[in-house]
Amino acid sequence: MSASHPYDFDLFVIGGGSAGVRLARISATHGAKVGIAEARFWGGTCVNVGCVPKKIMVQAAEYGAWAEDAAAFGWKNLDKPEHDWPTLVRVRDMEVARLSGIYSRMLAGVGAEVFECYAQFVGPHEVRLGERVVSAARIVIAVGGTPVRPEIPGADLALISDDLFTLKERPRRVLIVGGGYIGCEFSALLHGLGSEVTLAFRQSLPLRGFDHEIREMAAESLAADGITVLPGETPVAITLEGETRVTRMASGRVVESDIVLFATGRKPATRGLNLDAAGINCREGAAIAVDDDHATNIPHIYAIGDVTDRVNLTPMATAVGHAMADSFFGLKPRRASYENVPKAVFTAPPIASVGLSEEEAALRGPAEIYTTRFTPMRHTITRRAGRKTLMKLVVEAGTGVILGAHMMGEDAPEMMQGVAVAVVNGLTKAQFDATIGIHPTAAEEWVTMRVATRRVGEGAAKAA
Ligand code: NDP
Q1: Where does FAD bind (predicted)?
Q2: Distance between CA atoms of residues 89 and 87, nearest Å
Q3: What pLDDT is recorded for position 80?
Q4: Exposed e or buried b for every residue in 58-68, given b needs 16+ CB within 10 A?
């Protein structure tokens, strides 16, 4: 600290997850004096208890199905594949440790000062780190979120998604509560690894917010695969009988399982930050209130990533962190766009989506819906149930602009990344049609859907 430089840091970042690490690293690369604190693990939820270990488990589950399917193509002696859970745990945890290490080394490599402890506000420019108090010109909160448990008797008998990654052996019977991303993904991967899975959710369909037709297909596919799907169910109590968890639903239904997983959403992890010491306002639900530049009500304090509860996805968080670093220190003021953020759910088969659903488009005005449903070539041979593909384009009537694309089927997330470039850039159905397909692929269907399946949203146009 000096008279010309009144703070210890130009930027102090609280939280070493996807958003915070990107912001700190790029800011330091631009020449800023940066400090960053992380109390639990570098890389945050995504690297340690989210996207990365989850995807490794999804991939492990895929091999089981492939081994079974291979027989249909003439492979022999594969009829009794067995999965060794401890091997998966070992390779998964090694990869997580490798990536988490890269995150912390990257920060040290660009000269950021790294604090492995909890950070707490003690004033608008001051943060306590254990015994030490540091000051910064700008402070950014990037502490992410934490799973929520329904407040019912016996809730502490249930696990949350973080706990799933600590299991030493495969659970035999699993009840998953919640039909969102985590509920659907963990149902599919645990079923694929050999657990008996029941998925219970309180709506009539899983994946609220996704295109309705995709949600219907998700429910059908999960059930066809062998998962017990229980729509319209809300747990009211869990008890322990011997080693068995007995979950009672509001409907009166009782489900017995070895573990119960609550996949019932996440909330911003602001507890313990002592936001009041800096005078920072939160929205309802503890999310930090920010403007379009991610500034809080205190002009030099910002918040990014899941703690703002906007689009709670890793690539969104890193994009916002990067844009913020460029704006603060790179002489390139810019904002990451929250429009048309592509999404994926790693079920079996997976789901991916970008832009407006059919229902959202219909509220805006007339739209043409193009759909195709088919059995992928592989499964015309294997005849595996629950592996149909649905692809769907939502097109603005008149202009032909593609407003949304949705898919459930093998490789959906891999395909959707490319389709998202077209949607983000406002390409039209005519431009898709003028593109030659790659044959034989499922992806060629994106450019060969010639006749609209239906037209929606006429009423919206009249109302407007
Ligand atoms: P979601 O918000 O996706 O889903 C929560 C589910 O729990 C919903 O079905 C919700 O029902 C239900 N629910 C909420 N409260 C209760 C309750 N008290 N009793 C019964 N059911 C309840 O949350 P997740 O936990 O699945 O995931 C958290 C977030 O993490 C996601 O929203 C996403 O942002 C991110 N994520 C992203 C992934 C990806 O990109 N592939 C993977 C995993 C997580 P209702 O619909 O009625 O509210």
Answers
A1: 55, 306
A2: 5
A3: 79
A4: bebbbebbebe
Average pLDDT across the chain, whole number: 96
Q: Whose CA is nearest to atom 34 of ligand 1?
A: 312
The neighbouring-strand residues paired with 404 are: 355, 394
Provide mean pLDDT across the span 367-376: 98
Measured CA to CA, the distance from residue 23 to residue 277 in angstroms comes to: 24
**pLDDT grade for 462, boundaries at 50, 70 and 90:** low
Question: Is there a single domain that holds both residue 138 and residue 185?
Answer: no
Judge if 247 and 163 occupy the same domain.
yes
Shared domain for 282 and 255, answered yes or no, is: no
> Ligand 1, atom 15: nearest CA belongs to which residue?
264
Task: Choose between 427 and 4: higher pLDDT.
Answer: 427
pLDDT of residue 79: 73
Does one domain contain both 391 and 311? Answer: no
Closest C-alpha to ligand 1, atom 16: 264
Say whether both 376 and 453 belong to one domain. Answer: yes
Instruction: Quote the domain boundaries for residue 211.
Output: 155-264
Regarding whether 91 and 68 lie in a shared domain, the answer is yes
Of the candidates 403, 409, 420, the one whose C-alpha atom is nearest the C-alpha of residue 443 is 409
Catalytic (active site) residue 5: no
C-alpha–C-alpha distance, residues 42 and 28, integer Å:
17
- What pTM does this model have? 0.96
Beta pairing partners, 392: 371, 406
Looking at ligand 1, which atom is closest to the CA of residue 206?
9
**Is residue 34 within 8 Å of residue 24, measured between CB atoms?**
yes
- What one-letter code names the amino acid at 282? C
Please indicate, yes or no, if residue 128 is contained in any of the structural domains.
yes
Residue type, 421: V
> Residue ranges for the binding site for NAD(+)?
178-185, 265
